[in-house]
Amino acid sequence: MTWVTDLDEYRADSLASWNEAAPSWGKRHDWLFEQTRPVTERIVEALGPGPGESILELAAGPGDLGLSIAERVAPAGRLVSSDFSPEMVALARENGTARGLTNVEYRVLDAERLDLADGSVDGVVCRWGFMLMADPAAAFRETRRVLRHGGRLVFAVWAGPERNPWMTVPIAAAVDQGIVEAPDPAKPGPFNLQDPDQIRALVGGSGFAEPEIEEIAFAFHYVDFGEFWDSLMHLSQRFGRGVAALSEPERGEFRGVVLDRLAPFRGEDGSYTMDASSWGVRVER
Asked: Phi and psi dihedrals of 241, rounded to 5?
């Protein structure tokens, strides 16, 4: 099997997974929006969208980041809210309609092969998308192509696993219990762009100027273990599938394992607070 075929299979599997995940992300939308607000607000601030501008969001998922920008560029400006998953695009459209936005175009777009004209947008944003793409270098090149001269790209990717126990603690437990396979560092994944030097190399190699990189530290808050478990089952396809395949007794036993490992993050009131960290990157064309 060639690496190209591996990537093609990854693209197909990823598309199927995100289409399948869209309903669950819709159910947890309000919670996720509030938890990740610090990253969303920092990206919007770094982009500095102005009235009348045209902005593209890549890998938009439920669309919250881009929809916040659409409000800034209205009424004459427009947002293109895009994702390669049709189900996620439908979810973003639902959220935009609920907010009464009329200056948004919802499109199914592959970031590695953008069906947009050269120099057609003033800015591009992407929150936690590039590190999951099969060929992020191609996506950066395409992003630069569709940006006007002087346009801005602002994106976030996850920092290292040691900075993100909210994700690594339960996944490590699942790996140790044989429920999921250990992540393959050679394949796309949450931490594939954890190294700022790698970010600089990819961005610079795509023709962009030197990027500005900053850490955006925040935290996930859970009122109790039940909320933590529910968010994992709904938002992590890999984790959810592995746990769903267990028998009821096995599932209960594994819940106990995860509960034990979360002890350091438990407050006196039974709530949990777990650190999270992203790299925020801003670069001009």
From this structure: -65, -45
- Domain range for 115 is 3-284
> Is the Cβ–Cβ distance between 131 and 190 less than 8 Å?
yes
Select from 62, 37, 40, 59 the least CA-distant residue to 49: 40
Residues 6 or more apart whose CB falls under 8 angstroms from that of 206 comprise 137, 140, 141, 143, 144
Q: How far is the C-alpha of 58 from the C-alpha of 84, rounded, in Å?
A: 9
Q: Is 75 exposed, middle or buried (0-12, 13-18, 19+ CB in 10 A)?
A: exposed
Read off the CATH number of the domain in which 165 is found.
3.40.50.150
Q: How many domains does the chain have?
A: 1
Contact by Cβ (8 Å): 187, 238: no
Q: How far apart are CA 241 and CA 244, in angstroms?
A: 5
Chain segment 158-182, per-residue pLDDT in tens = 999 999 999 999 999 999 999 988 8
Rounded CA separation 279/173 (Å): 25
Residue 5: pLDDT band with limits 50, 70, 90: low
Position 179: which residue type?
I
Rounded Cα gap, residues 130 and 135, in angstroms? 9
Find the helix packing angle between 64-73 and 86-98, rounded to 10°.
50
Whole-prediction pTM? 0.94
The Cβ-side half-sphere exposure at 152, using a 13 Å CA radius, reads 17
Q: Is 48 helix (H, G, I), strand (E, B) or coil?
A: coil
